[in-house]
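Thread: Newbie trying to understand structure tokens

Hi all, I'm a second-year student working on a class project, and my supervisor (Dr. K.) asked me to get a predicted structure for one chain before our next meeting. I've only ever worked with sequences, so writing a 3D structure as a token string is new to me. If someone could post the tokens and maybe explain what I'm looking at, I'd be very grateful. Here's the chain:
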Amino acid sequence: MRRILLLILLIESIFGINLDLSSEKNISQSIENHKAYFGESLFKGEFKKNRELRYNSNYILNIGDKVSIKLWGAYNYAGELKIDSQGNIFIPKVGVVHLLGVSNKNLKSVVERSVKRVFNSNVSVYANLDSYQAISIFITGKVKKPGLYSALAGDSILQLLDKAGGVINGEGSYRDVAILRNNRVVKRVDLYSFLLDGNLIPFQFHNGDVIKVGNIKNRVEIGGEVEKNYIFEFLTDSISVDEIMKYVAVKPNTTHFIVTKWIDGVEKVTKYPISDRYRISLRNGDKIRFISDYLKNNITIYIDGEHANLHSIMVKKGENLKDLLSKITLTPLSDIKAVQLYRKSIAIKQAKLIKANLKDLEARVMTTGSSTLEEAKIRKEESALILDFIRRASKVKPKGQVIINSSTDLSTVILEDGDRVFIPKKSQVVVVEGEVSLPNAQTFVSGYTVEDYIESCGGFSPRANRERVLIVKKSGRVITYNATSWWSAKSVNIEAGDSILVIGKVDSKDIQITSSITQILYQIAVSTAVVLKAF
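---
Reply by user tm_fold:
Sure, no problem. This is what the structure looks like when written as tokens:
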């Protein structure tokens, strides 16, 4: 290690090269810290590929433009004529028609007047601009590829800027684009008008015009409860928070904003109520973040199943399940006694537990040895099956159900943000899944036992683990049923809406592996109400 460090120092001292060993980290951090500029996606729209002629009534005809002329009646003629260097076209039997400086909307009437000087009547006229003259435009300033570009006089400024690679982010201005003619500014363009409102006023370019993209001068970084988290540019020395809000689409629940300023090299962070947006101004380099204190005191609950309410509701923090249920409009089919509660935090814990057990199982498979060649062959085949089971099991997503017992006081069940309440529909069905001959749903029969429902599905399959049949009650509560025990049969009462899950046996010579897989199958069945086959 000392030799390597000495070698690096020697190279740096001889060649003046700084070998930054953390360059990859720096590049990664730079990308991670990148903040998008509003408008930077504008030149990903491939404007430069569009070369179609667009009708512009105010376009002024120029030398090199081509017009289509058709005359019919007492005299017939059709042709495409180019405006010559003197600004004229020549129509046989009509003569010279001067078109230089004529607007596109007046083209037909000018041609018509010239025709009528020769033919008093019975000659109809059609005149149309077919193509603009080809011109050259200089593009300079803060664009990626400054240079001289060929264009059509009717091309839009977006097409031309796109040819030059677009504006350089962080350097070029999207709001200060100047068009110069004979060294004088003839038009200024604010691309924000197009980005925000779709406004793009047509402009007729002349040969030799210059498009110059100015430097960005003032910018403010915006984040938080807004639709557009960007760095925004503004033209004046300062801009009010109210004005900036017009650009960023602040979310309705916003209550405050935080402004970060640098005064004499010291960072100053101040929080304001949203009502102060008219009096607080932002300057170049400031940051503003819109926040919602409303969300700190409220949580969102999602409601699914059989009810007549909205599917999401915002309630005060500390709301309990009993109060929430009182706000829900039920239908005649709602089974309020079987209400179910699902929670993200519980789902995460269930997923972590399954993942940990799968990792432990994988480690056992990889480290299990064999004493003979025949046993090694069997182990190899079994390992492949177990690894496939691990792959399938890792894709299972637990639901995170919080079991609500019949004796539970619902006013003690405090809701969390993102909780999902499911109100089942009243059911007269019992579902039988897993290792039975014909898994299906059956109508509920009063007095039927677990064995009766399983027999109605053709009985247990040969792979069924009769000692660990799961009865999932309609409330989500899980009861383990041992079909080999007479006492167990007497203790389980099947109700309408219940599910019977028959887990399969695990065929493995290793007792520990068998136990692990059985435990994982049980966890998956309990957390997802799904029976996953082992192998």
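A couple of things are worth pointing out once you decode it. The chain has a mean pLDDT of 81. Residues 145 and 219 are 24 Å apart (CA to CA). Feel free to ask follow-ups in this thread.
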